[in-house]
């Protein structure tokens, strides 16, 4: 597959998550909640997670922003459901390193659609868009993790 067709595939995956976001909405029950924004571009994310017995059992988000920001939130909420807090924090680290253009060991976690965001590393101004939801996840899990300890 040529690079051009791979780039096209990645764009389609990002647009699919942007146009048909997974896990978009609010939770009514008690949930870990985090609100973050990117003042540079105006992206905003409100992330909610339900953590039971050290595992993320549900994750939802609302927000507004560019296609990369919202698609990344959609992909992230899909990826972390069912993971432990520690696994999720490792995934955040892996994703952050991937956004910095570092080679990462993708055998640790199946990245699936998240891999479509690898091209963002070529555009430094867009990295904050892609990482906003992940920073919210890290903050929420960090706050929640310290409460459980």
From TrEMBL:
One of its GO terms (molecular function) is iron-sulfur cluster binding. Gene3D superfamilies: 3.90.1010.10. Residues 10-129 form the NIF system FeS cluster assembly NifU N-terminal domain. It comes from the Bacteria. InterPro entries: NIF_FeS_clus_asmbl_NifU_N (IPR002871). One of its GO terms (biological process) is iron-sulfur cluster assembly. CDD domains: IscU_like. NCBIfam families: SUF_scaf_2. Belongs to the NifU family. This is SUF system NifU family Fe-S cluster assembly protein. It comes from Polycladospora coralii.
